[in-house]
User: Fold these one by one.
Assistant:
Number 1:
Amino acid sequence: TVLIQGESGTGKELVANAVHAHSRRSGKPFVALNCAAIPEALMESEIFGYDAGAFSGANPRGKKGLMETAHGGTLFLDEIGELPPDLQVKLLRVLQERVFERVGGTEPVKVDIRIVAATNKDLAKMVEEGRFREDLYYRLNVVQIHIPPLRERREDIPLLVSHFIAQIASENGITPKSFTQEAQNYLSGYEWPGNIRQLQNVIERCMVMI
């Protein structure tokens, strides 16, 4: 189990993908969920799935959740600090026993998955404040990876700029462009509060507008 911590936009999902790609699970699914992007009422059925007739409007045949979809591979839970308390309990059981029940179901479902979680929040402080379960925190925090913000690793900026230029040119079918030395110096000297995501957006804007 891996816990990735870093500011928003630092590339936590890329690191999670790398963890998966370099593991023995690399040939199996990598399934990602942003816990902050799913309404709380839908999150349980999204993660654990549901049985037929579990609730009004549900698929009459039931539906697999992300846990089962990721079987054999990796489930990446981004913004884990947004996970509601009742689902924290259920996730803890999965980490301890590798088993869960679908919404509306009574039969245990066994899964073989690696959980990789990520957050831009201080989970240890959230535990102290009673906003995150202590036992789940220690279950998640087996291998901790801290990603420093871009302003603390400016030497990476020229490499990232070159990567984004090639990527954006390929995706948009346009000719790669280059930056003047003055522009490169400006990019390397900027604070980048939005980190890598902001840098990528700026490069893309330059590529398509100039």
Note: The first strand starts at residue 2 and ends at 6.
Number 2:
Amino acid sequence: MNAAQREILTRITKGGVKFDQSLARFSSFAIGGPADALVVVDERETLMPLLQGAEREGLNWRVIGK
């Protein structure tokens, strides 16, 4: 992920993004590689605008978890 993409994602999430995070704590077996960016969403209402913004900006994304 380049600096421009990081800036866009920071703007979309209003600063609620962590970069270069391990996904191990999100796995039952505590394994997982690094994620370029991680956004934890607790409410459904927050997810849709985030995904729409990422899509609009051409950012690749993946939902993991429940």
Note: The beta strands are 18-22, 34-38.
